[in-house]
TrEMBL record:
Organism: Paradesertivirga mongoliensis
Name by which UniProt lists this protein: Methylmalonyl-CoA epimerase
NCBIfam families linked to this entry: metmalonyl_epim (TIGR03081)
Keyword Chloroplast part of the UniProt annotation: no
Pfam families to which the protein is assigned, alphabetical: Glyoxalase_4 (PF13669)
GO MF term set: methylmalonyl-CoA epimerase activity
VOC domain boundaries: 3-131
Residue ranges of the TM segments: none
InterPro entries: Glyas_Bleomycin-R_OHBP_Dase (IPR029068), MeMalonyl-CoA_epimerase (IPR017515), MMCE/EMCE_epimerase (IPR051785), VOC_core (IPR037523)
Enzyme category, top tier: isomerase
Swiss-Prot/TrEMBL keywords: Isomerase, Metal-binding
Amino acid sequence: MLKIEHIGIAVKSISYSSVLYEKILGVPSYKQEEVSAEGVITEFFKAGEDKIELLEATAADSPIARFIEKKGEGIHHIAFAVDNIYDEMKRLKNEGFTLLSDVPRRGADNKLICFVHPKDASGVLIELCQEII
């Protein structure tokens, strides 16, 4: 693991929350994109070295919609940057962690991603991120 890549926050409305986070962080977002495979619209903010990702569901049965229905808006996941997502997935699997996919998927912000089940990480959903080169 190289560093915390970003913190993902589930929101009901990107348009509302974007204005809020612009005020909090004092910077505009640098990217908004839809990841249709995940049923989500994302928006990214960067303040110094730190990044925040806002996540809004695009479908009522998407993971973000289910999360908000169950827990309300708030921190959804912590993402860690990795050099080689395949090696990290193998290492974590060998350490006994449950991965939510067998192979990485294409995520937002030009990343390959994989999630570690929160039951294996004290209730925290962990995302592994590798920059797509």
